[in-house]
Design goal:
This protein is mostly helical and 140 residues long. The protein is built from five helices and two strands; from the N terminus they run βαβαααα.
Length: 140
């Protein structure tokens, strides 16, 4: 698409939304072909890709956004590596907790012995139906 344009009233957190604008619009946006995509903010004249200054500012915000994403990624990887070195368990715990199993037993007792529906027995036991059936299926 030649000379496609987006006009906004205000750039709210443009450096964070930059990637969204590039990836989620129907317009093809290539930093090497920035002339084919026009972005103009009505209330903020600095955000106008029809001028050299506007193109420069947009490119700077894109670089800052990419830099922030890379920093977050590096920090996350570093934190995970440190946790592994300290022998910390990472991720979701496997299996059901002891309290969930106890609640399951109570709900199962209500269902089997008191002829209460599974919905009502789960509510009384304080457990979701999904957890009830997950534990029930694992018991078999």
């Amino acid at each position: 698409m030649k000379n496609s344009s987006i006009k906004t009233w205000q750039h709210v957190n443009m450096h964070e939304e930059y990637d969204f604008i590039i990836n989620e619009t129907e317009f093809s946006f290539d930093m090497n072909k920035i002339n084919s995509f026009l972005f103009k903010s009505i209330t903020e004249p600095a955000f106008d890709t029809t001028s050299a200054n506007g193109k420069f500012i947009i490119q700077i915000f894109g670089a800052v956004a990419e830099f922030e994403r890379n920093l977050i990624s590096e920090r996350t990887k570093s934190g995970l590596d440190g946790a592994r070195k300290r022998k910390k368990l990472l991720g979701r715990p496997k299996g059901s907790s002891q309290t969930s199993i106890e609640k399951y037993r109570f709900a199962k007792h209500l269902y089997d012995n008191k002829n209460i529906s599974i919905d009502k027995s789960c509510k009384q036991a304080g457990i979701s139906k999904a957890t009830f059936y997950r534990i029930d299926n694992n018991k078999k």
